[in-house]
Amino acid sequence: MSELSRVQERLNVQFSNVSLLQRALTHRSYLNEHPEHTLEDNERLEFLGDAVLDFVAGAWLYDRFPQMDEGRLTRLRAGLVRTETLASFALRYRLSEALLLGKGEDDSGGRERQKNLCGAFEAVIGALYLDQGMSAVRTFVEPLLGPALADMLARDAEKDAKSLLQEWSQATLGETPAYRTVESVGPDHARQFTVEVLIGNIVCGVGTGLSKQGAAQDAAQRALAAIEAGEVVFEGR
């Protein structure tokens, strides 16, 4: 059985145009060392697959969570299509075994590099879209999203509110939250701090605590709740 046949067997997908799958698994470094290779590298398919995955993950979340606001949906979609998640999908189907890499890239650990794995998975999705259309992509991708989302939410539950707010803000707005101490009252042994968190110039939450860190965590938690409830609105969002 050829390597491409084994890949299709693992994917449980049969390509009509197998050359699309071969291109999806061809890294630029391979072409640099094999100019006689007739196919182009996988970067254009990677670009296409990235856009298709954004749509499929977004539509899946939209249908699955009809009451969830846009900000939360955006953060979850960013987690589902991030490099680490897509690289894990590539590992599941052992795409690294079929990647065509240049010797230097291969010898330096290119088959385990998350960027290459993510790119290969995106390219395979781009190839599948061209070969069989959006319906086939959704049939293939959607069963992967449920377990990935469950794992992501479990890991999110272990993160602190400041980390979650920063992830959401950077993914959605391209901004990093800033924290500002606005008040400190009481004796040294029982001082209470008030901290506000800003995204851009908007105060999103105000928290209190017996330390600046505790107050900042409280402010971040209140900001997340306010954003999910639609009580904080960002221009252009």
Tell me about this structure.
By secondary structure, the protein is mainly α. It has 2 domains: 155 residues, Ribonuclease III domain (Ribonuclease iii, N-terminal Endonuclease Domain, Chain A), CATH 1.10.1520; 68 residues, 2-Layer Sandwich (Double Stranded RNA Binding Domain), CATH 3.30.160. 60% of the residues lie in helices and 10% in strands. It has 11 helices and 3 strands. The protein has a 3-stranded antiparallel beta sheet, covered by helices on one side. Helix 4 crosses helix 9. The protein is elongated and about 75 Å long.
| CATH architecture designation of the largest domain | Orthogonal Bundle
Count of individual helical segments: 11
Structural category is mainly alpha
Number of strands: 3
Low-confidence stretches: none
User: Element order, helices and strands?
Assistant: HHHHHHHHHHEEEH
Overall spatial form: elongated
CATH topology value of the largest domain: Ribonuclease iii, N-terminal Endonuclease Domain, Chain A
Q: Which CATH first-tier class of the largest domain would you pick? A: Mainly Alpha
Task: Determine the N-to-C terminus distance.
Answer: 51 Å
State Rg: 23 Å
Q: Main β-sheet: number of strands, strand sense, barrel status?
A: 3 strands, antiparallel
The overall number of domains is 2
CATH superfamily of the largest domain: Ribonuclease III domain
User: How are the strands ordered across the major sheet?
Assistant: 1-2-3
